[in-house]
Amino acid sequence: MRNIPGVTCVALIISVLVNILGSHGGKILVFPVDGSHWVNMNLLIKGLHARNHNITVVRSTSSWYVKEKSIHYTSITIPLPEVISIEDQDFFVSFLQKMLEIQQGGASVLAFISFYWEMLTSLSEIHRQASQLVVEMFRNALLMQSLQDTQFDLVLMDPGLPGGVLVAHQLQLPTVFNVRWITSGEGHFIVAPSPVSYVPTSGYAVPDKMTFTQRAKNMFHYFLNICIDTFVVSPHYNRLCTQYFGPDTNFYHLLQSIDIWLMRVDFVFEFPRPTMPNIVYIGGFQCKPSKALPSDLEEFVQSSGDHGVVIMSLGTLVKGLPIEITSEIAAAFAQIPQKVIWRHLGEQPKKLGNNTLLVHWMPQNDLLGHPKVKAFVAHGGTNGIYEAIYHGVPVVGLPLLFDQFENLLRLELRGAAKVLDVTKLTSQGFLQALQDVLQDPSYRSNMERLSRLHRDKPLQPLDSAFFWIEFVMRHKGAAHLRTESCKMPWYAYHSLDVISFLIVSVLAVLATVAAMFHILCCRPCRTRKLKQE
Amino acid sequence: MRNIPGVTCVALIISVLVNILGSHGGKILVFPVDGSHWVNMNLLIKGLHARNHNITVVRSTSSWYVKEKSIHYTSITIPLPEVISIEDQDFFVSFLQKMLEIQQGGASVLAFISFYWEMLTSLSEIHRQASQLVVEMFRNALLMQSLQDTQFDLVLMDPGLPGGVLVAHQLQLPTVFNVRWITSGEGHFIVAPSPVSYVPTSGYAVPDKMTFTQRAKNMFHYFLNICIDTFVVSPHYNRLCTQYFGPDTNFYHLLQSIDIWLMRVDFVFEFPRPTMPNIVYIGGFQCKPSKALPSDLEEFVQSSGDHGVVIMSLGTLVKGLPIEITSEIAAAFAQIPQKVIWRHLGEQPKKLGNNTLLVHWMPQNDLLGHPKVKAFVAHGGTNGIYEAIYHGVPVVGLPLLFDQFENLLRLELRGAAKVLDVTKLTSQGFLQALQDVLQDPSYRSNMERLSRLHRDKPLQPLDSAFFWIEFVMRHKGAAHLRTESCKMPWYAYHSLDVISFLIVSVLAVLATVAAMFHILCCRPCRTRKLKQE
């Protein structure tokens, strides 16, 4: 398949054919986010394809996980003029190493500021690229006309990179988000009231019951996130809004006006908080019963006897921890009677025990569902956490990046995980944490309780996602479920104008009364006084 | 059956027998509210009974709709020493007449204040009675011991009269509310953030998109409701909290701490607004497909030919409107080609046409589901409105009391109803409204759109109610879905302490900088000046 400027040729032809021939299902335009986010979106796409919908996925020439060819979707590949592959593993490894250095206290204030600055620059660059994808689409009149002609029923998108809302707005299509993170924070903060007195903000790992200091810090993080949104993220998209839709269209209002938020959250795991009628919770929609293990892995697992197995994985983004840390972990593993399966990509750690099997990839869900798996050493990405909850396996947490600290804190507060600081990790500390989770039955029973609650739903999360996607297609939106309060000026939304008016009115009444009192009572006194003089 | 002090004897024996013999279902203690509320609760009770649960209903000797004997439940009858039957129809007729007089402008300011005072006194008396029921239960050690021994799984209650929460707290039972109204307002206001800038408060019929004046009035109503709650309603229950649970137990916290709110709301009808994870929407759970009409009624309906039928009902509470008004209505009905079925209890109106059939009772749901029924003249009670939405029948609204004004405004804003002011009703005006709704197809098509949206649910509202009631029974509560933020002091909840601290800190920093500037810059100047002098 050869790319013509701005769009994959065959994709267009298929897309138009679909339109001409018609279909019993709907036509869905998908804007995914790469990396682990794609794992989630792809699951939805496969399900929607199986339900007879025609899916068109918008990807860029720098897409990493999102392949051009698939039996489940047609793709439109946008060539980005300048490809900075931020979805490169090395980027995250170097990012992680700098962060570990700072957390270990080995960096100066200047290094910290420089690291933070670099982080913001990267964030800005990611969103500049994402907005550039929109520019490339809008510039391509042929593509835009073809998208218009296809008469899509819906835009389904991951607003982690939210450019797709501009395309959806241009095509006047109802939109569904598959979301947890949006622009620079957790999705709820854009659309639902979020009292910072008990709702921890993104980037601050803190319980929902906070001390005064924690509440003050939480508010600081809240304003920090607003600043990042306002000055780092939104300008990229607001510029395009002004350019293509005129000065009255605000990027934030576009985000807030979408129909359904399929939120990858479950309150078994997340702290309870205010929500909105158009937020549908699909946390753990990727979870499924485990399948049989490959025979060699099953043999290894069975060889663990009654002691069982511990599995370890640090997710898709990070290739590996520094060898000093992995060697401490390996030494601890070597001391436990359990067998260990460790998904490990970097340099082989020293002090590796005979009980430990290093693998480049493992069937994580099938292992977690295996009765012999006793604990899961995890970095705290949401996919892995939901799988652990689904199968009721307690966790030893090694948070590294992003939301992983917050995620693991939630599990720890529910008594289902022990969390360690990777920058202070010692063999002894790791061993102690492992033994706690393996030997204290409360970790397992708490995780099993979460599992029972998580599985007990009137409609399974994936079915819920399909229902609401198809609901929006059937009814051409879900306007009755969303407020337009976001379009109010902020002072009106918070009633500050009314409160000011009431205060001024009360003061005016008091002042009038005081003045009248002064005129009626004091003046005669003064007159009498003057007369007496 | 003879009442022993404070409890029906046989009920107790059955209750204990149920406990001894065991059951596959659960044991549910129900605190209902009488009148139209009971219609809803009874539907849940019948369903739960059919699902093999054992239901015990707490009623008083003055109960009106809630019968002592039923095949679906066992009852416990609490003899109230002083029976003031506020659930008497005459009470509402006289109440309505006074209100009509005031609305027609025929009453002085003094009469208005006296009417409002009377309303508050009645409200206080209703809650005094409801709290007295709790006192009678707590005083009866035999009853309380028997309730304890029965080991109920759940308290299910309508918190319109919220005394049951005290009993649930005493018995330490998980609790589910079947709710729309609670104490003096709409249930959401107790448990979910409710920005008064776009959430209309109870008792103020206004759209969600308000002018500045409307927002100011909405805030006034909000504070009025808080005052009524604080000074008229809560004292009755807070006194009991202090008496039985000590000074640390707050009645409001008990309300806010219950497990699941089965909210009789659907956003097809209600304005979208913030909600909470433990609110489950079951609006319209009473709706069901229509059955065949009795043969005589079917014959009457069929005799309408292509013109069809208009039906009219003003609900269960109001016996009838003054004859001057009903005669205007009758005269208008006489002029339309449709046949009319009118549920009417009072004096026969003058000018009644041949096309109008007065009945004492009608199978409202079966009529609304009949294809010949073209319009519904209704008072705007929620049960009737949900039935009209379910069957897609447009409404001519005659709101009389309570929430009926707000309910009908919502339908009107959706283009599915025409609402009239009953105090200014003329034959001509009523005829015009009827003809509009009958002849302009938009009313019907809007109502049918609402009907399609309302019926398109992944789980029907009644099934949702059963699921969540049984969920709470299975897991002994749903603590993971409710925040405990309500237990924070109000200033902390709203972060006022943090904001004050931050403001003071900023001011302190500014003051310090200013002082240092003063010391460093101005003092040398002054010194120089002094020296020069």
From TrEMBL, chains A, B:
SUPFAM superfamilies: UDP-Glycosyltransferase/glycogen phosphorylase. It comes from the Eukaryota. It is a single-pass membrane protein. Keywords: Glycosyltransferase, Membrane, Signal, Transferase, Transmembrane, Transmembrane helix. It is found in: Membrane. It holds the Pfam family UDPGT. GO terms for molecular function: glucuronosyltransferase activity. It is an enzyme of class 2 (transferase). The chain crosses the membrane at residues 498-521. It catalyses: glucuronate acceptor + UDP-alpha-D-glucuronate = acceptor beta-D-glucuronoside + UDP + H(+). InterPro entries: UDP-glycosyltransferase (IPR050271), UDP_glucos_trans (IPR002213), UDP_glycos_trans_CS (IPR035595). One of its GO terms (cellular component) is membrane. Its EC number is 2.4.1.17. Gene3D superfamilies: Glycogen Phosphorylase B. Belongs to the UDP-glycosyltransferase family. This is UDP-glucuronosyltransferase.
